[in-house]
Amino acid sequence: MKPVEAPTHPGERGGRPDLTAGADAPLTVAAVAARLGVAASTLRTWDRRYGLGPSRREAGSHRRYTPDDVARLETMRALTLRGVAPADAARIASQSAPSSLVHQPSGGDLLDPLSLAAAAIESDELRLRRVLLRAARTNGMVAAFSELVEPAVDILARRDRADAPGRAPEAVLAAAVLAVARELTTTPPASDAPRVLLYARAADTLAAHSLATGLATIGARCRILRPNRAEESARRAVDAVASADPDVLVVLGRAPGAESLVADVHAEGLAQVVCVGPRSPDIWLPGVHRVRTLAAAVHEIGDLLVASQRGAEASKRPGVPASDGGVDGGAARPAGTAPGADVD
Fold first, then answer.
1. Where along the chain is composition biased (Low complexity) (predicted)?
2. Which phi and psi (to 5°) does residue 148 adopt?
């Protein structure tokens, strides 16, 4: 069937899009279709289904695409090419600020979840590490995880999961996060650094490593404890905490046996406890602290460690009895894995 020829409008020549028109000039459906490399019918479908249509009206009820409209459509087009479902791509494009959709930072790589997800889909490990490392060095590892990695993981979870052999975007992204965590924690902490033990279920592993990295950069000695299997005794986790002798135990989410672990650690006075996230154990006890976000956890744990260090220093002064709960000057007895270490 012969396609219907678009009528001639300002900004077009002989019914064909004028691609030399000014960048800020409103464009017709045909002009935008030519710019994006899609059919005009596709643009009309995106308008009808997702509301990504032209926002400017001119005389004669003709609708025109503004630069902001085109920016959203460019994002929609890029996301669908990367494998994101059209409905999700449209939602992201609609909610994004137009000015940020086409912004290219001076570093060369876009620092946004969409670009991170695209790099993971393409198995571009070097770009993933480069982007994450720059973001972590600029804003901190916790911010990089919360603002880039988590949204990128959500985008990947919503896409078509039919991957080619050897392509596992989520695994590639996870490996990049761990690699950056190792890069940022190459300098060992002081021998008398306060100790933090993190306990998290498998789904929160990357969050645990990111939080541990953030805490390591402020001088803490951090280890991540793998949770027990459901059939194993919860006592083993308590024994692991006692062996590690941490100043603070951090529980992320609702890992296996987390409730019993928090209650037993508190009852035996093994460490102060910080529960992180809305799904963390619903336990309210003195000395058990609760925060909702990783960023808040960094501040809360940092304050606890400062107080612990001050108590340890006071206990070493002449005439002040030594405290069993202070930070000793010997080597730490870590359990679990260091930040950034690969996990099973």
1. 330-344
2. -120, -55
pTM for the model stands at 0.66
How far apart are the C-alpha atoms of 343 and 202, rounded to whole Å?
9
Query: What CA–CA distance (Å, rounded) separates 128 from 120?
Result: 7
92-112 per-residue burial string, b: 16 or more CB within 10 A, e: under 16: bbeeeebeebeeeeeeebbbb
Are the CB atoms for 252 and 276 separated by under 8 Å?
yes
Between CA 28 and CA 311 the distance in angstroms is: 70
- Per-residue pLDDT of 251-269, as tens digits, reads 998 877 888 889 999 999 9
Q: Given 3-state DSSP classes, what are the helix, strand and coil percentages for the chain, each rounded to the nearest 5?
A: 50, 10, 40
Residue 36: CB atoms within 10 A of its CB come to 16
- How far apart (Å, rounded) are the C-alpha atoms in residues 180 and 131? 10
Q: What is the largest distance, in Å, between two alpha-carbon atoms of the chain?
A: 97
Distance CA 205, CA 184 (A): 17
Residue 189: how many other CB atoms lie within 10 Å: 17
Give pLDDT tens digits for 200-242: 988 899 999 999 999 999 899 999 987 766 545 667 888 889 9
Pairing of strands 195-200, 248-252: parallel
CA distance 268 to 165: 50
- pLDDT at residue 311 tops 70: no
pLDDT above 60 for 16 = no
- What domains can you pick out in the chain, each with its CATH number? 17-101 (1.10.1660.10), 113-183 (no CATH), 189-315 (3.40.50.2300)
Length of the chain as a residue count: 344
Look at residue 288 and give its three-state secondary structure: strand
